[in-house]
Amino acid sequence: MTDSTRRIAYLGPAGTFTEQALMSQPDLAGCSLVPMQKFVDVLDATTAGEVEAGFVAIENAIEGTVNVTLDALAFDHDLLIQREVELDIKLNLMAKPGTAISDVHTVLSHPIANAQCRQFLGKEAPAAEVKPANSTSEAAQIVAASGPGVAAIGPSLASAHHNLELLSEDIADHPGNKTRFVLVAPNGVPKPSGHDKTTVVLTQREDRPGSLVTILEEFAARTINLSRLSSRPVKTDLGTYCFIIDLVGHISDELTADCLRSIRAKHADVKFLGSYPAAGVGSTATREQATTAWAEADHWMQSLRSQVEQ
Q1: Residue 10: which of 97, 69, 91 has the closest Cα?
Q2: Residues with Cβ < 8 Å from 212, sequence gap 6 or more?
Q3: Is 43 found in the same domain as 97?
Q4: How far apart are CA 78 and CA 271, in angstroms?
Q5: Domain count of the fold of the chain
Q6: Same domain, 145 and 280
Q7: CB within 8 A of 300, min separation 6: which ones?
Q8: With left for phi above 0 and alpha for psi between -120 and 50, is residue 279 left, alpha or beta?
Q9: Are 184 and 42 in the same domain?
Q10: At 218, is the secondary structure helix, strand, or coil?
Q11: Which range marks the domain in which residue 223 is found?
């Protein structure tokens, strides 16, 4: 399948941060991109086979986990993460040309974006009513079709798409904001890259004192680093939670495989959400170093084995 015929669903309409992150991947940017109204629509379309893959946000540096995405992957879909993409988020206030911030009486955006600009809005537009939209780009689309005094929070890409003017740039309350996106597909596990993550959902079979510690000791005993540990209600009983874990390593690594095998056998049900290349600053260099180290270690082992008497 060529890039141009591969269909990838994402949170639309055109101009969202999701599209911006998707376009940052050269091999994905040339695919046939299919905008959807909500993250769950993206995952539903991917599961139904309407598209080959879906691209969704899963975590934000300020607001934390995107629960709607994580819950859908944990409970409602059998999809595997193929890669992760990190994007620097710069939020801007935009409106029709000629609008001043003092004119704004309504602000629209995705709830996560609204939450990240509370301090700015409280100071610069304290009387404005803040309303949710399905996406930052949809908010810009609504503003473009609305009367005066309505503004949107979103990426500069959305303002260009909808001919809006930036009233104020980079308005998030905290600097260094990033969002992590994942590409998901019905099947397939990418080969090890030398710097990988594995994501699993662990549901304890019985709730007893120290049960979580016992599970975590399985990782500690094998010196496996956990980059994220969060809990989510399993939606069956009050007070019953599962744990979503990102660990450093690939399912093809024997230590990783042995750890998950032991947890499944002794402690908890394990849902595998994928092993995939890790993103972030220094990932490429880390992969190159790992490849070099592995090649040197392999050469060393072959030299030892060559001495074994026949």
Answers
A1: 69
A2: 204, 243
A3: no
A4: 9
A5: 3
A6: no
A7: none
A8: beta
A9: yes
A10: helix
A11: 189-305
Which residues, other chains included, contact 175 with Cβ-Cβ below 8 Å and sequence gap of 6+? none
* Residues 285, 170, 142, 136, CA torsion sign: positive
- Please state the φ and ψ torsions of residue 169, each to the nearest 5 degrees: -110, 150
The Cα-based distances of 238 to 73, 75, 112, 166, 234 in angstroms read 21, 16, 26, 46, 9
For residue range 103-135, list pLDDT tens digits in order: 999 999 999 899 989 999 999 999 999 999 988
For 160-216, the three-class secondary structure string (H helix, E strand, C coil) is: HHCCCEEEECCCCCCCCCEEEEEEEECCCCCCCCCCEEEEEEEEECCCCCCHHHHHH
The CATH number covering residue 57 comes to 3.40.190.10
Residue 310 in domain: no
Per-residue pLDDT tens for 196-228? 999 999 998 877 777 889 999 999 998 899 999
Output the domain CATH number for residue 261. 3.30.70.260
Around Cβ 144, how many Cβ atoms within 10 Å?
A: 18
Give the amino acid at 35.
P
